């Protein structure tokens, strides 16, 4: 089992790889244009309302920074600006923002000139843009100086067939996994340690994500990726799940067709609903980090589930016409999934710094 010392949480654990650690190396995110993200969200046409929605392209800036600049231009508070999800800072990304401006005409957003972002389109809407309201994101990523293009293609085809572990990305845990260290100290201090509401959400999310990754890593390491009696199965494209107490031909057929998927726990109060050997594995992973598990329970989080594996949708790998040593990787991910989970299974990254400003 992947270990992480409760008292320090120093260093990043090595989550298990589905097909062994990649032998192919490449450079990643050398410049913002190497990592392009387009949000999958289609707002309604213009309608009466007090919210001005903006389709924004940003480069080298994080989402909250852009939100602050939009608020300043409109003369409103940051809380009046909405967006569906955080996007990478070291990237070129396109996403929607909303600004609440009751009783005002559409501002001249084209007059807002900024080196790091620009407004491409505006719409008037009746509601604020809420976190998580987008369907997902389209990614286009340049891999530079690929060590073995043929081996990369083979690895890519294998991942298209098998999927990848649905790990939460390292950016969820902060540099040097400091969010885990902070979460442990906060949980141990109890009411003696005051933490802002925003920080609380960050630490709870990091702790929960860590235990989830532990369970996924353990099942991958044991190659227990077929459906087992006692597994908690999730309906594809849904958050609904059920316990497969027994396996029959119909259930296995649904699993093999991708209609239902294996899950791992998002830790909370009580014990996960899994049964038998699966339950024992999940419980042992959480018990290996009691400070995190007990802290999540004390803060009242519910036991929830997340898919154990992540499929590659709309995926392609194409040569870079300008340089035969480079290629472009494209794929689509649902909301809440991490592009870095795919990258880590595909290549060994050379000289890459985590972008802590990304949540996806």
UniProtKB/TrEMBL annotation:
For this protein, what reaction is catalysed?
uridine(13) in tRNA = pseudouridine(13) in tRNA
Q: Does the keyword tRNA processing apply?
A: yes
InterPro entries xrefs: PsdUridine_synth_cat_dom_sf (IPR020103), PsdUridine_synth_TruD (IPR001656), PsdUridine_synth_TruD_CS (IPR020119), PsdUridine_synth_TruD_insert (IPR011760), TruD_catalytic (IPR042214), TruD_insert_sf (IPR043165), TruD_pseudoU_synthase (IPR050170)
Q: Kindly state which keywords UniProt assigns to this record, in alphabetical order.
A: Isomerase, tRNA processing
What are the GO MF terms of this UniProt record? RNA binding; tRNA pseudouridine(13) synthase activity
Q: What is this protein called?
A: tRNA pseudouridine synthase D
User: What GO cellular component term, any one, is given?
Assistant: cytosol
* Entry annotated with the keyword Ribosomal protein: no
